[in-house]
Please model this.
Amino acid sequence: MAEPAVTTGAGTASGPDRALARSLTAPGLIAIGLGATIGAGIFVLTGTVAAQYAGPALSLSFVIGGIACGLVGLCYAELAAMIPEAGSTYTYTRESLGRFPAWIIGWDLVLEFAVAAATVAVGWSGYAQSLAADYGLRLPAALAGAPGDGGLVNLPAVGIVLLLTALLTRATREASLVNGLLVACKIAIILAFLGVGAAYLRPELWHPFVPDNAGAFGAFGWSGVFRGAAVVFFAFVGFETVATAAGECRAPQRDAPVGLIGSLLITTVLYVAMAAVLTGLVPYRDLDVADPVAKAVDTIGLSAFATVIKIGALIGLTTSALTALYGQGRIFFAMARDRLLPEVFCRVHPVTRAPAASQTVIGLFTAAVAGLVPIDILGEIVSIGTLLAFSLVCATVLILRRTEPHRPRPFRVPAAPLTAGLGILSCLVLMASLPAETWIRLAVWLAIGLAVYAGYGRRQTAVL
Model:
């Protein structure tokens, strides 16, 4: 029996070769959300943000980021239940604003998903090399880091992206099972770290909780707390992957809101706890390393536990990269289904029902970025791309409430004008906290997207 075709927007095509398998349930969606979010945010970016921006107030940066994401998450829940299609923000924008704005946000989502996967892969490489060094194994410097980090290519980062891409080209069910098992291991190891670390805390390291500003915006002080929140916002990217999976849910109207809100609540609590323990074990200025959690465990002096933590970090980063690659593949699937990308990207394998061509191209692009771009640049690019997408999600809720007030909404945002408005404001404030160079990179990326649309997408959609 053929799988049901994914609902598409007006003028799009559907059929058995463009239908994703509907095999996911609420627990699977929560696992996807946890797999995506609990990764680089805990195991990599915590150290950078504490050392450069927020100090011990890192946990407060996560609280601010979590509140902003909570507002956005409620909007996502309404849209994912109302429009249960692959594509997430891209699909919602197409429904409310049309194809051209949808193209812009779809192009922006490449920053959110593909570049996020590259960022996580670089963090994975750092922990893998740290673990290998414990056993006397070291890569040549030329193969251990990107050009900006003193090497020629980050070979481990390239390798993990290609391996996960191969898994994702097989089947959603298989990838979901692997992800679920890895997420369970990851959560167990994080809880073990919190339990052991709590016994060795040095409360004096939390004072002053908000370090004095160093004389520039974002360099500690309260501006540093907000810049830290903008950077660690990257850590919350994953919960949107749940929305991209709505087209593969058995009961999306029920399961998508549960997956979105459930994964967001769990990750926020774990992030705040991890930030508090990290800054209570290691002076915050000493956390600017590729493997801050491992450094904290080394401070405790439990060498065997340090190995367990590094393995946990590798597991966590693996699931984060896996789900980010998964989300980007579905974005390309939706854009190709609407003829904004070549048709090959919306074709699925006749047996596995996975969008193999889309996933392969994304994997190759992501592997190149992971191998050649330093992690600090990647993290800021992902954050600004994510914040732009999130602000548009909140705006879409308001637009559809006005233009289609009678459309069935299995889940409704409470006090929608206030909630969505605060979500937009939160995203804009955090975007304003990012460096000017990050805005320039976003503008260049969007300009490239406009050129691609003018050269391909506009002509293709003109015949619809």
